[in-house]
């Protein structure tokens, strides 16, 4: 007797062909970028093990004169260890920021599948080489610096490629919500990276790098085998990025002519405003693709400069937490390295909620900039409160970490996903979506300058006291908010005009 068809297969067969491929693209790019962040996180967990409190471990078994640092890993055993940690962070982040501006240009001109999978395999190699420094007993600073620089350069292949792939498959309707959920890969990767690194941090910290390196390299092979770059490559219908009507079908005002919500019956994996069966008969030929946009041409797209500069300061705050939060918890709350790593994952858990919430609200209101600005304004006092009362108890610390994570990472997630995709398919491009990877690279590359500055400044300021580090983070939050003022005013005027027209129609 033959068994009935598996329920999962029946579900897949019930879904339209386009939806199956969209789901595959969404899941695969999610896992790919999760592995990118998973491989970045171990350095923040291992820092406290490279320069631990040796006096708590008892007397020096080697009878060396410097008993207070006998268990530290040279060259991080000196009084300048915070500056050296900052140099490690900065080596990665500066290389990442510089490489990102170039990466988008290559991403528009090379096959995304080759570009993404090759970068993942190389990133896995350099991550593993950093961890092998433990087993090879390497104590030369320049070895670790070079590994960080190389890893930073190859990791720039990730973000422009995955955003371009998702943008190729999904139209603008409900993009904020879809990408808000999808962007949780950043926080999921940070959480998994913390947990995986924490397993070996106290016993053999080299494995805290080697295992994530193997994971991202393996995901690179899977990406090479299964990623589909364009709907046309498999006979699916391309998404509708813009419509001709000036009015929003859902009734919500927007700052552009193309609405955020195209059709009320649109599902999360469906094509905006058109049925896939109606268009699948005449798929667009790859030969008809327009030429890639220039770097200066991408800068001329309205909103690119403002959101790029805003992301610079928003990412400064986010990456300072990414690289320094575990060490802050060890120094202030006096937890062990593993406990601090586990507790720091709550900040990323809050980031997941913040990204989804920001995407949902911005879809409903049509105000990407206003959503970011409100969250940044609320984040500033919450950072102040976390520094002063966040360590008063484990319950308070958990709640504050989740709230701060949501408010700090929400705007960061929205700008790097939905805003980048919106601007990369802006109506001023007249249907040329080839700007998507370049625009994404410009926005994230500018943000990566802030990501490099944040940990560097934290390493320089932390010896003067953690209070000063938090004052720096609060100032960055305020500056990020101010840089969006022009776009926020434009959105508010659009809402006021829409409401005035609506009242006029009712009176008529």
Oligomer: single chain
- SSE run: HHHHHHHHHHHHHHHHHHH
Structural class: mainly alpha
As a percent range, the share of strand residues is under 5%
Average pLDDT reading: 80
Annotation, overall tally of beta strands = 0
Number of helices: 19
What is the terminal-to-terminal distance? 71 Å
Q: Can you summarize the main beta sheet?
A: none
Please give a structural write-up.
The chain is built from 19 helices and no strands. It has 508 residues and is mainly alpha-helical. Residues 243-287 have low confidence and may be disordered. The chain starts with 6 loop residues before the first helix and ends with a helix. 54% of the residues are buried. It has helices spanning 7-14, 17-40, 42-50, 81-109, 112-135, 141-154, 158-169, 175-182, 185-200, 207-226, 276-279, 295-299, 304-333, 337-365, 368-389, 394-424, 436-461, 466-482, 485-507. Helix 2 runs antiparallel to helix 7 (158-169) and helix 3 packs antiparallel against helix 14 (337-365).
Features:
19 helices, 0% strand, single chain, mainly alpha, 508 residues, globular
């Amino acid at each position: 007797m033959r068994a009935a068809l598996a329920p999962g297969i029946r579900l897949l067969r019930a879904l339209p062909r386009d939806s199956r491929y969209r789901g595959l693209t969404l899941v695969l790019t999610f896992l790919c970028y999760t592995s990118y962040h998973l491989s970045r996180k171990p350095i923040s967990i291992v820092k406290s093990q490279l320069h631990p409190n040796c006096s708590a471990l008892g007397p020096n078994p080697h009878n060396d004169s410097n008993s207070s640092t006998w268990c530290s890993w040279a060259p991080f055993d000196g009084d300048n260890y915070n500056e050296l940690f900052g140099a490690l962070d900065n080596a990665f982040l500066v290389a990442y920021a510089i490489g990102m501006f170039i990466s988008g240009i290559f991403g528009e001109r090379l096959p995304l599948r080759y570009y993404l999978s090759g970068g993942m395999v190389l990133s896995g190699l350099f991550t593993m080489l950093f961890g092998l420094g433990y087993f090879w007993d390497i104590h030369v600073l320049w070895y670790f610096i070079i590994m960080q620089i190389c890893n930073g350069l190859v990791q720039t292949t990730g973000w422009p490629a995955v955003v371009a792939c998702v943008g190729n498959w999904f139209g603008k309707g409900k993009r904020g919500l879809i990408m808000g959920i999808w962007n949780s890969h950043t926080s999921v990767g940070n959480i998994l990276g913390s947990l995986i690194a924490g397993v070996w941090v106290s016993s053999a910290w080299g494995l805290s790098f080697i295992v994530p390196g193997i994971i991202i390299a393996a995901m690179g092979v899977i990406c090479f085998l299964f990623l589909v770059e364009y709907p046309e490559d498999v006979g699916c219908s391309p998404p509708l990025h813009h419509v001709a009507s000036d009015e929003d079908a859902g009734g919500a005002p927007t700052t552009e002519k193309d609405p955020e919500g195209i059709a009320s019956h649109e599902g999360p994996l469906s094509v905006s405003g058109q049925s896939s069966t109606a268009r699948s008969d005449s798929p667009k030929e790859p030969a008809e693709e327009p030429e890639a946009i220039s770097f200066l041409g991408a800068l001329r797209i309205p909103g690119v400069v403002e959101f790029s500069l805003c992301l610079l300061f928003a990412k400064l705050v986010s990456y300072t937490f990414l690289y320094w939060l575990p060490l802050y918890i060890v120094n202030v709350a006096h937890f062990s390295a593993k406990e601090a790593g586990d507790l720091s994952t709550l900040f990323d858990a809050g980031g997941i909620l913040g990204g989804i919430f920001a995407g949902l609200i911005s879809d409903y209101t049509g105000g990407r900039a206003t959503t970011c600005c409100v969250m940044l304004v609320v984040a500033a006092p919450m950072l102040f409160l976390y520094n002063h009362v966040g360590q008063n108890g484990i319950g308070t610390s958990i709640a504050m970490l989740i709230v701060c994570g949501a408010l700090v990472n929400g705007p960061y997630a929205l700008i790097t996903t939905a805003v980048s995709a919106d601007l990369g398919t802006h109506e001023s491009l007249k249907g040329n979506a080839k700007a998507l990877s370049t625009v994404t690279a410009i926005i994230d590359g500018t943000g990566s300058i802030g990501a490099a500055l944040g940990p560097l400044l934290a390493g320089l300021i932390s010896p003067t006291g953690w209070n000063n580090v938090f004052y720096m983070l609060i100032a960055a939050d305020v500056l990020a908010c101010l840089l969006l003022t022009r776009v926020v005013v434009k959105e508010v005027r659009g809402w006021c005009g829409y409401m005035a027209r609506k009242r006029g129609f009712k009176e008529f």
